[in-house]
């Protein structure tokens, strides 16, 4: 290493702006380089980092929701933008991801009015009362003022890493009302969507190959991806398609036993209810069976309940916490060891505020020491976005009957609900009419997961292309119609079965018709 | 496992609302339990998970910015709320964290007006033009409309996992202008603050004990905490306090060589410029020396440049990318292997929008394959909050001269800048006047990091309490004055030296006076 000269001393700084034409430049340095004595002309060099140098757990993680088919859709979208006539369709239908506001779903006005006031509270002082009243009903203004008091001063300040205390209390009140059982704001953590909660919990309990996590098959790929990043062991248990994707406690216990025999600790178990991608809603019976296994083996239950508002039939959603509390009361002492993490999110349901990144987790049955570790982990990423936290508060405490915004809010909610319900049954009927396709009736969530009994010819064709058979079907569907879905192989499935996950969020019915037409053609072209 | 009866079939669902009094209850289940034949009264039970079961890397991670002293401050704050007379001060001064809007700093109006329109675009149609003009200047409305077009439809939709393409282009334009060197939107990733970027990069290149990362001492604890979570090896290099916390390439190379000898790969090196907690600004000389080592050993340079707007003296901030490009031009071929990740954030500078969680990283010198892995990693957490992404766009492209909002925006920026500069020099002068305290002149960032030559008596007292000596000083300061700071031990420091990190964000001068008074008393009470 050689001595150097300072090229920059005491140059004028131009205030808070950036210096566009920095005084450090090729010309100035050329001068300095020439003035330096003894510099080696070309120093020693090591090769740059390549994919070979990357953490292999990151390399191995797969995330199908944004995998090969969606990437192909992106490139077709670009092709359409440049040359609209070059493809047999005019637009991409993004049925691959539950992203309601990318498609037809409008944000709830009450939420957005309150959050716009949190961003710009000055507006209340800038307008005459009669003009202000045109924009915001009194409960909007009151809510925003209460929430600003909760955050201290500004949504631009870091909050407590666990989340704003006032918002956590609103969540606790919501849970208490939903379940008829007490809830404590100290057990609530506000996170960046449910995925933020999942990352925290799995990092705590499932890291390293000796630690396992039971995941339902089919599953939401976030879980396998996060476990892969943590180099933890995924322990799959299968949902039973024929009985509406129900869980089987016997089979779950077998998975647990077999893991233990192999030296893998079954530390946690994911339950997705309502189901993604299955659309199923678990019965109280099913949930009780899960807790029985959890109690017996000391397994943390992760209840992914982000679709709890998305019910489209007469089957009721029952929270896992409610079932746990009932079990604890009816069999005193028997379930008091059970630990439950319940997740919720503003991304789904009638809110659909995916891009705003809000969610919560409730920790049930954990010691204060464990909660302190969760808090430390949360503090390393400082806090989740404060407006996302505010939207959690708004989601769990919408306008109530008698409040000024109630009627409009109800109207908007009912429209969204009816529209989702209508489209889910329309799409379900379409699948029932297709040759070789069967599909469970959707009860909740935003997805259908039809089973497609692909022919040997189709399977052979897929293999020749180096693709999973259902991935081939999805690719052909995309290239013929612009409909982007996710192959069942991305969610895992019973070997030898093939599925496709599609949302029913896309507006209109034309795309459903074009899917039907595609399917007929595909089926004919691949008959054995 | 026993057979079960279904208690819930075909109950009426009450539309999109939650069912407050769920039909699944203790009473209904009591009936069902009594009806079940053969149920074991109390099933087998395993113990619940405790701190012993938690991932030890999470347990070992430390995060001093929100560590013991700030936790004590939280409890004192609660005590004050309940009993205002019980302590010798009336409020807590949070000088422990760079959280400007928690204290005196107001958000920039232009940012907040645009973001409030992104949240509630309807407002433009709800007011007469003359009323609208009272609220928003034309460039605010235009900017919001452009940005809504960029996001597609709504800030409530997930964006591309890399970030909204239009916003990334704005960032690339900013970098190009700042450095006078081209920048590409495809190299930009929008992230949840800079901490989101750090988590991604370290997870890629620094995971497992065989992979090391050079970090400056003193350092920002995010880095040691994230490395601890990844079980990677932190490779400390010391900044030289006496020369204004400069870096020494010779010493850095020694650290690299010694790591290699121990079998640890020095994959990455963190450079914080302007410095946190030091407040130093690196010279071009210093930066060139760093790149020389990076080129020689193939080390990824992580340039934490989040304080690039926070300069308070006549020393210019020069981006590491600019220096790299100049080196590459003046010595063709010599530095073309260097890989750089440059971080920026909306949390600091004149924006101070910590709670809105926006930031970016620019990847320089990486292959397309590596960038695809970064994209996959980003996609597992779906996307960073879209309004945070929008604020990055606003930060890097504020109103320009001649645009309607320019004057007001400049006025606000100048006020913030002057106020920060004033308080930094006020606090610096105060430290210079204290016995046993020395403090480098602050050039940038939001912090002072005075060195306190604690007496043997103070050190012995701290040890008797099981505390680090500077932690003891901070605790005494907090308990006497309400001023919450972070002990230097949380940032690491040259052994045998003691420091305190304080922000200079708190308004007023009273707290500085009370610190001076405390220090005099502390010094007298601990004389050897």
Automatic annotation (TrEMBL), chains A, B:
Homodimer. The keyword Transferase applies. One of its GO terms (biological process) is L-alanine catabolic process. Residues 138-509 form the Aminotransferase class I/classII large domain. This is Glutamate pyruvate transaminase. Belongs to the class-I pyridoxal-phosphate-dependent aminotransferase family. Alanine aminotransferase subfamily. Gene3D superfamilies: 1.10.287.1970, Aspartate Aminotransferase, domain 1 (3.90.1150.10), Type I PLP-dependent aspartate aminotransferase-like (Major domain) (3.40.640.10).
């Amino acid at each position: 290493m050689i001595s150097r000269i300072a090229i920059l001393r005491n140059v004028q700084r131009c205030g808070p702006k950036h210096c566009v034409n920095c005084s450090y430049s090729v010309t100035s340095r050329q001068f300095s380089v020439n003035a330096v004595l003894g510099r080696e002309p070309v120093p020693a060099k090591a090769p740059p980092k390549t994919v070979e140098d990357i953490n292999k757990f990151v390399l191995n993680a797969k995330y199908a929701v944004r995998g090969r088919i969606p990437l192909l859709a992106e490139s077709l979208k670009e092709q359409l933008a440049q040359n609209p006539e070059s493809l047999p369709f005019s637009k991409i239908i993004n049925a691959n991801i539950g992203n309601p506001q990318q498609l037809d779903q409008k944000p709830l006005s009450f939420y957005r009015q309150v959050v716009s006031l949190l961003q710009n509270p000055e507006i209340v002082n800038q307008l005459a009362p009669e003009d202000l009243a045109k924009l915001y009903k009194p409960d909007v203004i009151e809510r925003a003022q209460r929430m600003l008091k909760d955050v201290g001063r500004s949504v631009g300040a870091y909050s407590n890493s666990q989340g704003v205390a006032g918002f956590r209390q609103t969540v606790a009140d919501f849970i208490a009302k939903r379940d008829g059982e007490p809830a404590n704001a100290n057990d609530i953590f506000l996170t960046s969507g449910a995925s933020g909660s999942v990352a925290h919990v799995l990092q705590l309990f499932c890291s390293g190959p000796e630690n396992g996590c039971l995941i339902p098959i089919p599953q939401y790929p976030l879980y396998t991806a996060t476990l892969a990043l943590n180099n933890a062991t995924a322990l799959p248990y299968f949902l039973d398609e024929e009985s509406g994707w129900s869980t089987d406690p016997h089979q779950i216990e077998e998975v647990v036993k077999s893991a233990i025999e192999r030296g893998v600790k079954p530390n946690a178990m994911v339950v997705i209810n309502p189901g993604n991608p299955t659309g199923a809603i678990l019965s109280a019976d099913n949930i009780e069976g899960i807790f029985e296994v959890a109690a017996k083996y000391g397994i943390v239950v992760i209840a992914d309940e982000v679709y709890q508002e998305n019910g489209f039939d007469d089957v009721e959603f029952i929270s896992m916490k409610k079932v746990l509390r009932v079990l604890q009361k009816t069999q005193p002492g028997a379930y008091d060891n059970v630990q439950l993490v319940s997740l919720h999110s503003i991304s789904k349901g009638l809110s659909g505020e995916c891009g705003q990144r809000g969610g919560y987790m409730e920790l049930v049955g954990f010691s204060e020491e464990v909660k302190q570790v969760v808090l430390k982990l949360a503090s390393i990423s400082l806090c989740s976005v404060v407006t996302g936290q505010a939207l959690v508060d708004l989601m769990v405490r919408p306008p109530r009957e008698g409040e000024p915004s109630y009627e409009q809010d109800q109207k908007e909610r009912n429209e969204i609900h009816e529209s989702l319900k209508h489209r889910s049954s329309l799409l379900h009927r379409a699948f029932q009419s297709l040759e070789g396709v069967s599909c469970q009736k959707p009860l909740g969530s935003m997805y259908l997961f039809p089973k497609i009994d692909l022919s040997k010819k189709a399977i052979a064709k897929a293999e020749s292309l180096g693709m999973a058979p259902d991935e081939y079907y999805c690719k052909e569907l995309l290239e013929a119609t612009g409909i982007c879905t996710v192959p069942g192989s991305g969610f895992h499935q019973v070997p030898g079965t093939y599925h496709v996950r599609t949302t029913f969020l896309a507006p209109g019915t034309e795309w459903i018709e074009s899917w039907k037409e595609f399917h007929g053609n595909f089926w004919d072209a691949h008959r054995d």
